[in-house]
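Weekly structure sync - notes
Attendees: PM, LS, DV (DV joined late)
Agenda: review two folding runs queued last week.

Item 1: First target. Sequence and C-alpha cells pasted below for the record.
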Amino acid sequence: MVRMGNVFDLSTVAKRFRFLAVLEAVTWFLLIIGMVYKRLPEPVLWPVKVFGMAHGIVFVLFVLAVLVTARELSWSAKTTILALLSSLPPFCGVLFEIWAARTGQLGELSNNRSAESEAPASVMS
C-alpha cells in the first residue's frame, strides 16, 4: 500500500518540488476545462481568466522550484533541462517527478520510494 503522508509537508526542497509539480498539473487541468467552456455556443470566459492566471503563477513557481532543486540536489544539466522542459506539456511535471524519485534525483523522496518498494518484497520472501 502506498502511503501519501502529509501532502502539505513542504519542509524540504524535494517535497516543495513534488507539491509544485502536482499543483502545476492541477492548474493545467483547470485551464483545459476553462478552454472547453470558452468554446461553448454561449462562451463562458471567466474560467480561462481565473485558471489561466493561477496556472501562470504556479508555472513560474515550478520553474523557480526546478532551479532551486537542481542547485540543492546537485542535478546534472541534463536533468535540469528535462525538468524545465517537463513544465511545458500538460501533466509532464508530474511524470518528471515520478521519474526523478525513481532514479534517485529527489533526495529523501527517492530513498523513501526505494525503502517502500523493498519492504513488501522482503515480507513476501
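Item 2: Second target, run right after the first with the same settings.
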Amino acid sequence: MLLAHPALLTDLVHEYETLSVLDADGGGPAAQRRLDDVGYGLCVATGTNDVDAALVAARHGLPGARVHDDSMLTARRPRTPTRRRHR
C-alpha cells in the first residue's frame, strides 16, 4: 500500500479540524462540501473508509505522533532470530 507523505497528512488533518469547527458554527453548505472532500481525501490517503479511522491513522502516521489509543494495534509477535545468508 502506498503511504501518504507526512506533510500531506498534516495538512489534511489540520484542514479537517478547522472545517469541523466552522461547520459546527454553521459554516453553510460550502464548508460542509469542503469538509466532505477533505474527509474523503483523508480516507484515500490512509486507506480507510471511515473519517474517524482516517484521522486516527493519519495521526499515527505523523512524525512525532504518540500512541494514545492502542486499541487498533495488534499485539506484536516476538521476533525469532533469523540467519542471514551471504553468498
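Discussion on item 2: The longest helix spans residues 6-24.
Action: LS to circulate a short write-up before next sync.
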